[in-house]
Amino acid sequence: MSSFSGLGASFWRNQLRQWHWISSAVCLMAMFLFSVTGYTLNHATDIESKPKIDTKEVTLTAAQLGALDGAQDKADLPVPAVHMILEASGIDVEGYEAEVSEGEIYIPMPKPGVDSWVSIERDTGLMTYERTDRGVIAILNDLHKGRNSGPAWSWFIDIIALFCVIFCLTGFGLLWVYAKSRAITWPLIGFGVLAPFILFMVFVH
Fold first, then answer.
1. Angle at 125 between CA 124 and CA 131, to 5 degrees
2. Cβ neighbours of residue 22 under 8 Å, at least 6 residues apart?
């Protein structure tokens, strides 16, 4: 059956149109960004990037090191330790888990497009901070992958994925409705469905 008829058909056509434009509106910017970053990820080796690296070293006093005594492995630093590091270096490590050993406290602080960390040598008090900024494209690429972007962004990706599915299904429904008057519809759908499988089997598999 390639078309609908009657009052029921009118209802479903209206529903398809409504949900198609709603899902397209919600997905518009995200789909554009994910499409662009899909290209940049596919050509990552061809896109030159010059990382910007900043480093800072501070030697902590014995009293400052004392604020780290309660630090535990794979856990956030105690509040006094967070405040001490912020006052000593201007670096905010709140919310980041520390890797604690007998000789060192290491705090990785990754973000989209940025790799940064703090290392504190417990015997000498030397605190080293390094931040590597890989640029705007790297930020967008990491957001595309959900890398180091936090739970809120992960939820955003899931919601956008759901609306993309709605967009595709309602688009297919509209194609079905109007296929009778557009002969090229089913050949194009067939091409769109089969092309990825053919490419995979012939050139990838």
1. 120
2. none
Handedness of CA 5, 10, 11, 15 (dihedral sign): positive
* SS3 label, residue 9: helix
AA letter at 75: A
Which 3 state secondary structure label does DSSP give 76? strand
Q: Where are the alpha helices (DSSP H) in 43-125?
A: 62-66, 79-89
| Residue 121 · residue 141 · CB < 8 Å | no
Take residue 54 and report the two structure tokens written for it. 């900043």
List, as own/partner pairs, every contact residues 30-35 make where C-beta atoms lie below 8 angstroms and the sequence separation is at least 24, other chains included. 30/156, 30/160, 31/160, 31/164, 33/140, 33/143, 33/144, 34/144, 34/160
Among 99, 85, 115, residue whose Cα is nearest residue 107: 99
How far is Cα 37 from Cα 34, in angstroms, rounded to an integer? Answer: 5
User: Tens digits of per-residue pLDDT, 35-59?
Assistant: 999 999 999 888 888 899 999 999 9
Question: How does pLDDT run across 89-141, given as a tens digit for each residue?
Answer: 999 999 999 999 999 999 999 999 999 999 999 999 999 999 999 999 999 99
SS3 content of the chain, % helix, strand, coil (to 5): 60, 20, 25
Cα–Cα distance between 17 and 12 in angstroms, integer?
8
Q: Global pTM?
A: 0.82
Handedness of CA 84, 87, 88, 91 (dihedral sign): positive
